[in-house]
Specification:
single chain, mainly alpha, globular
């Protein structure tokens, strides 16, 4: 959600191709972690270590979150001279999300295609055979409903209490 919002805000929803992007600090490390995910997840799944497979995916997602903090795209956006670097950062984040969506597909078969739609890619492209970093030359994102909406704990507890009270009346 955060990545899609920033691509919309800073680039009108469409990232420039490679000629409009610049490399920088932390890019290689992020790519290394993300590109290692498919093999690690496959290794876990081959041994039926499902929680560990998910942990590997979320390790990649956590690395992408750290990358956001390290590169501070909101700071890059303040200076037009940083536009190519900002585009590179956003592209790397979109690629990280594409890898995550592909790897999450067996676990979240309804959510992964929604992730793909928000990244502007066809859900049919969520395939291990397409997991090459840099495969799409660009992204045109589409903001959608939150994939994992925040839970209002107080509201949920109140609804449970009300349902419980109704059961007791009956």
């Amino acid at each position: 959600s955060r990545t899609v919002s920033m691509v919309e805000k800073y680039f009108g929803g469409t990232l420039p191709d490679a000629s409009g992007r610049a490399e920088g600090d932390f890019d290689a490390e992020l790519r290394e972690v993300i590109c290692a995910m498919p093999e690690k997840v496959t290794g876990c799944m081959d041994k039926l270590l499902i929680p560990q497979a998910l942990a590997e995916i979320f390790r990649g997602i956590q690395r992408a979150n750290k990358y956001i903090d390290e590169t501070a795209p909101w700071q890059l956006a303040k200076d037009e001279a940083n536009r190519a670097r900002l585009a590179g950062v956003m592209y790397n984040l979109c690629e990280s999300l594409r890898f995550a969506a592909t790897l999450l597909l067996p676990f979240l078969p309804d959510t992964a295609p929604k992730m793909a739609a928000q990244l502007g890619i066809d859900a049919a492209a969520l395939s291990y055979s397409n997991l090459t970093f840099g495969a799409p030359s660009t992204y045109t994102v589409h903001k959608g409903d939150p994939l994992f909406p925040r839970i209002d704990a107080a509201k949920e507890l109140a609804e449970l209490a009300a349902a419980d009270a109704e059961k007791r009346k009956a």
